[in-house]
Structures are given as C-alpha cells and as structure tokens.
User: Fold these one by one.
Assistant:
Number 1:
Amino acid sequence: MSAGATEFSVRPALASDATALLQLMRELAAFEGYLAEFSVTAKDLLERGLDTEQPQFRAYVAAAPTGALLGYAVLVEIAFTYDLRPDWRLKELYVSATARQLGIGKALMETVIADARRHGCGRLKWDVLPDNSNAKQFYRQFGGEPVRDWEAWVLPLTP
C-alpha cells in the first residue's frame, strides 16, 4: 500500500517482529498512561502468540519496505457467544507518532475487519478512552458506534 510518499504493507505479525512490536506497544502504553505497569516482554509475545501453535492473540503489523514497523493491531478471540459466532476484541490499534495521517491505521482496521468477516465473527469490539475524540471519529468511519446498553465493569485480581 502507499499513502502519499510512504509505502507500507499490512500483514500478520511474525516471530521476527517481536522486538519492534514490543517497542510500539510501549509507545502506546506511554500514550495511554500505563507505562509504569506495562510488563510485556518480547519473550511473552513469542510464547503467547507470535511463535506458538495455539496463540492467545492475533497481531497484524504495518511495515515499511525496510521492515520497520509503523503500526499494529492486537486482537483476542471470544470463541462464541449467544449466536455461536466468535467475537474478536481489538485490544490495541496503534500507529507510531511519526507515521500518522498516512492511512496506516485505516489499512490496519480494514485488514482486521476483513479477517474477522472471513473468520465468521459476529462482532468486532473495542474500547476507546472517553476523551480520545480522534479515535472515536476514526472508528465511526468504519461504522463503529458506542455500546449504549451496557456498562464496562472490571474486577482487578491482584496476586
């Protein structure tokens, strides 16, 4: 794909992407304010998804022709719900600050949506920080909308 003068391709993340993917994940953690709690390592990415027969997550990356990663999306699957179709939950979608406004986020999201449809998913879900109006505007272009009939709840389980 090409966005202006920036060429990139979107593809499933590979084991060889672990270190660069981790760096982008750390950038997102800093942006969203949880870097101090961020504890994922490259080894975790390999063992839990990028280099295993039974991955716990799916990851897609946008890569420049040089191989440099410009952005990523990470998803987890909820195997089935009331309609016996899986849901995919988009846990993270991030484009590096230096690569924004080039169509990379859109290309990642279009890839995720297309793969979710191919996989037979009933829904694609995600969370947005309440004050992130740019993200809300971004997701609306794909037909995304806030869930109004449910509240998100959490029970922190500390070791």
Number 2:
Amino acid sequence: MVLVEIIELMARDIASKFNPLKVIVFGSWARGEAGPDSDVDLLVILNCARDKKRDMQVAIRKELRKFKVPKDIVVATPEDIEDYKDAWWTVYHPAMQEGKVLYEQ
C-alpha cells in the first residue's frame, strides 16, 4: 500500500472512531516535499475539553498503532484554532496555512 493511501486510511479511522470536526495533514506531506524518512503530521480538531486533549491524543495514537508509519498527532479544540491560527510560533499556524483537509464534518 502506498503511504498516501495509508494517510487516507488513518484519517478515515480517526473520523469513524473519534468524530472529529476536521482531520488535516500538514508539514512535508501537505507541501509535497515528503521523503522516505518523513513523518505524517496530522491535526485532529475535536469538540472536547481543553484538559482532555492529551487523553484524546493518546487514544488516537493507540488506534493508529496498526499503521506502521512515523506519525505526529496534534489534537486541538475549535477554540485553540480560533485563538492561535495566526500565531506563527504555534503548530496551528502552519497546519491551517498549508494543511490539506482529509476529513471534515
């Protein structure tokens, strides 16, 4: 299976199990610059309490263990995105600027 297909499967898995608002791939895969050692950066936007983001990140990582590719999962709330999407020093900024939406409610 090609890595692009695996990324799409990961997004579908997240969508079916965690009901996110959006799943966005960002970083080198979104820019078309991914190489053989590139990880997959996914931003998952969920309606959850800010203090539950870490728990959700752990649950998503567990679910995606079956996909044997290096990955970085970032969980954010809609409020995080609204508050920090223009803050260049956060991960949200590049994710929202260059990211590709894989799933959206």
Number 3:
Amino acid sequence: MHILGSRGIRAALALLPIFAQAIEIIQTPAGNDLSLGNNFTLHWQTNYFEVTQGNTSIWSTVPGRPFVGASAGNDSVTGSNGAFNITNVDENECKSQNVLSFQYVDWEGTLTGSAVQVRGQLLNCGGSSAPYSLTFWIPKELPDQVSFYLNIDSPPNLALKKLYFRWASHANEDFYGLGAQASFASLKNQSIPIFSREQGTGRGDQPLTDIENSAGGFAGGDEFTTYTAIASYVTTDGRMFYLSEKSTAYANFNLTQPDAVTLRYDSLSVDGGYAKGSNMFEAVEKLTAATGRMPHLPEWVDEGAILGIQGGQDKVNAIVEQGLNLNCPIAAVWLQDWVGTHSQAGPYVNISRLWWNWENDEQLYPTWTRFVQDLRTQHNVRTLSYINVFLANVSTKPDGYRRNLYDEATALQYFVWNTTTNSTSVISSGPGLSAGIIDLTNPDLVTWFREVMKTQVWNSNISGYMSDFGEYTPVTADTKLYDMVSDAFFAHDQYPLLWSQFQREVIEELGLQNEAVVFHRSAATGSNRYQNLFWVGDQDVDWGKNDGIKSAVTIMVHMGLSGYAHLHSDVGGYTVVLTYDDFNVTRSAELLGRWGELAAVSSSVFRSHEGNIPSVNAQFYSNTTTYTYYSYNARLFVSLAPYRRRIITTESATRGWPLLRAPVMYHPTDLVARRISYESFYLGPDLYVAPVLDALTFEVNVYLPGNGTFTHVWSGTRYIGGQNVTVATPYGKPAVFVVDDAETPELDSFLGFVKKENSTVLSVE
C-alpha cells in the first residue's frame, strides 16, 4: 500500500466525494409539517426540510442537494503501534437521492412514543440503488434535544461500506471541538478525521515532522492526528452535534464547504443528536447532558505540584525534601517507574522503557507500600503511579518478578488476537520488550484484570495514576476481539471508552471517588463521564505550534468544547528528539519555566514530566535556579485554587463548562476572537490570560475582546476591550487580567500572591 506523507493525507481527506446531484422529491407530507413533540417540528420547505424548536431553526438539509449518500470501497490503513495512516477509498458512489415518504413510526425511548422517519432511495450507485431511512425523535431523557438514526441497506449486487450525511451550515459559522485538535482555532475549512491514534512527533512542525516520517512510517503524524476519537462539536451559532458512543466507526467531518457539513462514516448506520442553545455555553451544557460530564476531581490536587520523578526511593525522598525547603507546595509525587525500567539503545544515549507488569520493582522501590505511606504521613505528599493497556513479557527482567501477567493472560487468551498467527497480537516497544493488549470486550478478562488492579496497583494506598494508551488496538482484518460488534476498524475507537469505563468502575468499587485521580490521554465520545482528569498528550519539548507548548493550549480549548472540563499538560512537555543527523530537540530551563507559568494559570492540575529522555532535559530539580522557578509557579497555581475550585464545583460539574475558555465562547460575533487558538484565553469568567509561548520573550501583544475592562494584575493598568495592548512579561509574570473589575472573594489569595511576589526576580541561567 502507498503510504501518504503529511501533505498527502491532508489532500486525501480534503477530497471527500461531494454528492452534488439534485434531490428528487416523490412525496411530501400532508400539510408539510410533522411534530416531533415538545415544540419541535419537522418542516418540509419545497426542496429541503428543517427541524425547528418553536420559531427557531436548529437543523436543516441543504436546499436542492442530497442529504444522504453512500459508497463502496475499503479505506486503506497502514502503520502499527498506534501510528496509523488512513487513506480514504470511495468506489461506486451514490450520486443522487430521492425522498419517497415522511411518516410517523413507533420508536422506543422517545418523549411521544413515536418518531418521524424519512424514507427514500440512493440512486446511481454504480448502476444500483439503495434504500435508506432517516429517523428523528425527541429522547425522553433529553427533551430539549433531537436524536437521529440513519440507516442504509446495501443492495445485493453492491457492497456499500460507508455513508454520507450532509446538513446545512453557512459561511460565518465557526466550529470548535471534535476532540484534541492541536493545530487550528476554528475548524471551519478543515476536514477532520475522527480516529484515536498516536498524535505523532511534530504534527506538521518542520523539519521535525518530515524527519520522523522519512523512515516510511507515520511517526511524525500531521495536523490532524490526535489521541482522541470524539465526534462532537459546538459552533458560534450555539449549535451542538454529536455521534453517540455506539457509533465508533472511523468518521470524518468535512467542514470545507461554506454552506454544509458532510459526515463521512465507515458504516451503513449511525446515530447521534443535536440541539441549539442561545450561546456556546448553553451548547456545551446541552452537549454534556448527552455525552456526559467529568466526575469529581478531588480537592487535594489544589494543594500543590505533582512532581514527576523517576529513579527510586532515595532520589524521590531527596527531591521532595529539597522542594519543601524551597517553599514548593507539593501535593503528590508521580512515579511512573514504580514497575522498573528496561534500557534500550538510542542515538547518543540509552532510553528507558517500563516493565508493564504492574508490580513494584524490587530494586527501585523495594519497600513500595511503606514508602508510599511514609510520604503521606511525614510530608502529606500523596503518590501516583502508572498503568496502561499492555502486559509485557517480563521473562527477561533481570531482577525477576513475582507474577508474569503476560504469561497468565496468554494462557487464558485475554489479549487482542491475531487470526493469521493464531496468537496474541503483539505490540513491540523496542528491542527486548513485547506486549499484548488486554481485550476489554472479554468479561472474563475484565474480572481478572480488576483483581490485578485491586491487589497489585491500588493496594499500596496510592491516590491514582496515569492511565496510558488506549489508541493502539490494531485495525487489520485479522484482528479479533472477544466481542466485536463489527470489525477491528469499528472496535478501535470503542476501546478508549472501554478503558476509561473500566478504570472508573474499579475506583467506584473501591469507594475512592473522593481520593482517586486518574489522568488519561486517549478518549472517545462518552469517555468524559468516566475520566476525572485528561492530559493533552505528548508534546514536544519546544515552542512549536502543532506539537509544542502552543499546541497544549489549543488542545485544551477544543477538548473543553468537547465536554472535557478538567485538563492539564505535562509541565515542560514530553517528547525529546535525538537523531543521527544532529537535529535534536531537548528541553531548556526557559521552556520549563514558561510551561510552568502556563500550567499555573490554565490547568486543573499542576504536574511535571521528566520527558522520554530525562538525562538531556532541564528538570525542575536540576539546580536551585530551576527548582526556585518551579516552586514559584506551584505557589501561583495554589493561589488560584479557591477560584478554580469554585468554577469546577459550580460550573463544570453542573453544566459541563470548561475551566479554560476560548475567547470566542464569550464573544462569538468577534471575528478576531474566533481566530485565537493559543495566544490568549479566559480562566473562568473573571480572568483573561496571555501566556508567554516563545523563547526570549519579555512582552506580549494581546487582543482584549469585547468592550469591557481588563486590569493587568502586575501593573494595575486598566484597559478597555476591543484593542490590542502590549504588556511586560518578565519570568514568572504571564499576562493576567481581571475582567470587568470582578470582586469575587475566591480571587483574594491570587491577588495576595501578586502583591507579595511582584518584586520576585526569577532566572533561567
């Protein structure tokens, strides 16, 4: 198969079939109106139909153009180990459509007991025709929304594979959401694939992306690769749309046409819902009422930094004690190497991989349970660990093991299976480390692994962990799962939801809802109802737009508008790149400090990461200078805790509103605000922030939207909205403004911090 580079896949995605032939109306409903219930009505309007709520149009087809289509052909997927490259393949496209009837049908789960169904034929499908039905109803549990179900029957002589669903938009409607989008402000004029995979290293930032992709794989990704498969959006018109968590086939939202949205979906049936609010906040509230809201984020995360450390008990103790002496508030340590490490050769330096066997390593953490308890007792510092969807074969682990979970799961056939080899579908994480993916569709595996989690992970009084991966399930035709609804391609985007659900169920069984913090990077529609924290993935340790520090902000914007209110990134980024061509990306002390500022004024949690090659990165504990800067940022984060917690409790939990808010949410008609992706954002309603996201930058020019007031906290200067202003940003002082003279008491501790620390001078030398 031909492997497309980053430019090639973008072109392939943009060239979706446009089924632009005329629509033929055979019969219209008597009176042209059919009631859906609760003041919702389907109206036929000559050559299109619309759904209204009262006098407001909330959804419609495009006048004179087909709204349903289909095609044959199997999409081409290349790549492995999570780095998938997809080429759309469409054959025998159905060129036109007719409408035969509009009628009431009995339908379960509706407010009225019935639904309105549109029936017709897809025509000119390679010489064949295919019947379709499109059904609308008001769900009993969500009476202010409209649900839909589209189904196409493939003719006997033609194997149709995918459907197209088109509805109306307009040139001035901008789109946000669709999961962890990192490269765009508005998604209008883009064609967005919905598929969970490794986001890649570079994602369009050059020359890094081309270097990573040059080996013939897709390791660099492109502007559209993301860990999430979240098929929902909100718009500046206050509209929201989503596919249900049962509709997990590969999808693509084509937003390139000014007057239409076209959904391409790799199955012949799909369901979802839509609604219209009075603004974007109401749209998010309606969306999360359907797709879910994030569970409680425990209050202990407000108390300070979560220190990402590796290296064993003595090193951890020393770094914690040093931080406490430097007045660093520490809420927890995060120790991903609790299971031990495996060294692999790399350019210039060796790389450490983890032994995925979910028991403590006897060399690094010989008294693990007591060590965790001592940190809590002596310093009030909690411990987070690490878990993922793999079980590694630890038969070659030098210091031995107590259980080999890989062998046990293999004997019980608990892994995702390969029918060609008639064995476990093996994932390789470099030489000497092979693993299987647990099959979460197998109820026996779920029961078995639940006990592993309880007896080997949670048994040591930890307070949570990183819940990694979820995007690796193979998609080849010879992939088999225990309970596969359709095929591996369909099951792939279901897996992140199952992984999130599994973790939450274990937490609830243990009664740890008010203690456990589990942060995920993969997600699907509906995962947010099981995840109490999301982290935005593996950014490069640089200043890049598509995969560096800037992209962390853009992802938080779109994830927030996808229903994920509690978000954070790795302070300092993650991905180091060392090449034999001497193109290297390593973390500077300045990037670490500025990323800490960003986290303090943007995120629900303040957590650092050493990176994939810690030895070449500046670390917060590298020296007194870096630890002092980090401690300052942690105190800044803590000072905002009362304000953050108020928002999380009163707005995120009850309405699904994100903590970090794109300016467009408050100013949807402001064309400048619509184009802001990472440059500035609101933190709740009362603070406006412009972080420093470039090296050697000591002032920022920031656009202040609207016509209210913005008071710069560090200088006290008061500005009027609707203009660009330039403010000083020395180290430790990101541009933060109080909006409209807000006097909320929850800001007192933050303003006290500003007053106390305004003269503090930080360094990166």
